[in-house]
């Protein structure tokens, strides 16, 4: 073992005359551990939020959507056939989409009405797996059944088997003026995907019923695609746009819902920078610790210099001591942070039960449980940044120790 490392470790283990230096060392170590643990936990929670948000939104909307001019796609069967031959496409479903007013008794609510083929819809969306009552298969051509989001059904006061009336904007011209068209539907299902935008504003009907109601003939509004890798959506959309011709366009979820995911990503980066300041403050404490230690050990440094130690060797002794604080603090922070991140689903409910609070109320937040997804890359990044800051904090005090003049230090000894 090099003597610089040996002396540096001995200084760390030895009982100092100035206990205040030991206290600051422990404070620095605890600060680094706290900052690293907080960073790992927060990044894991942000990863969890991002994945839950993506899963809920993409469980209703499509990875790629193909549409035509004026929201009409006449040769949709050819589009479906071409799309299904495209690599990474695992499902394709046509749809008709329009706006309408739903009424039940004296209650009226606006909604997006989507006509679907139930068998194909299960290939591109997860609504069928989030049915509270009924099923998508209950939608039959000419049966005039409707499936409502749970919040939309609640606001209408509609239950399974109830009748609701759909008013569409395309009216009928009569001698008395334009009269909106009405159609009575039977509620055959209620879904709950956990996203208020869809639970409170989406209604599903059969594709042929929607074509009749909105007078589209055999045309549809577009075709929705599901991929085996959602991060290839833009590549697949661009490839399909080239193959389908100028009158057909293809868009993907990264364009249509980019604001949601960009907001979470920006928030994750901002939280990383803010919590990194905790580690930076702890690293500054290392500077204070080493500066006071250098002052306390001036006689020892002078003796080492007279025995032949070079300024570089003296500098390495104090770098070892400061780096040890950073390594131990980072290691403790990683252990604590990983344990909390992996068990946050148990820890948070226990705290809520103990203090009788609820951090994410169901009536306020879309996500009522605190999700967590620990990524090894985040742990490595946080650890590396913490170690680098700790090492940089040792440079000035160590350099100052290497500049001590032995004669001046020993003059009054």
Question: Can you give a write-up of this model?
Answer:
- The protein is of the alpha+beta class and 413 residues long.
- It has 15 helices and ten strands.
- It has helices at residues 3-13, 19-58, 76-84, 118-124, 150-156, 196-199, 207-214, 233-244, 253-256, 258-296, 298-306, 311-342, 344-355, 376-402, 406-410; strands at residues 64-68, 89-104, 107-116, 131-134, 145-149, 163-174, 177-191, 202-206, 222-227, 248-252.
- The relative contact order is 0.18.
- The mean pLDDT is 83.
Explain briefly what this protein structure is:
With 413 residues, this protein is of the alpha+beta class.
List the helices and strands and how they pair.
Blueprint: H1 3-13, H2 19-58, E1 64-68, H3 76-84, E2 89-104, E3 107-116, H4 118-124, E4 131-134, E5 145-149, H5 150-156, E6 163-174, E7 177-191, H6 196-199, E8 202-206, H7 207-214, E9 222-227, H8 233-244, E10 248-252, H9 253-256, H10 258-296, H11 298-306, H12 311-342, H13 344-355, H14 376-402, H15 406-410
Parallel strand pairs: 3-8, 5-7
Antiparallel strand pairs: 1-9, 1-10, 2-3, 2-6, 2-9, 4-7, 5-8, 6-7
Helix pairs in contact: 1-12, 2-10, 2-12, 2-14, 10-12, 10-14, 12-14
Shape: elongated
Distance between the termini: 30 Å
Q: Rg from C-alpha positions?
A: 33 Å
Which regions contain 5 or more consecutive residues with pLDDT less than 50?
Answer: none
> Helices and strands: which structural class?
alpha+beta
Beta-strand segment tally: 10
Strand content: 15-25%
For the largest beta-sheet, the strand count, sense and barrel status come to: 6 strands, mixed, barrel
In N-to-C order, the SSE pattern is HHEHEEHEEHEEHEHEHEHHHHHHH
Helix content: 40-55%
Total number of helical segments?
15
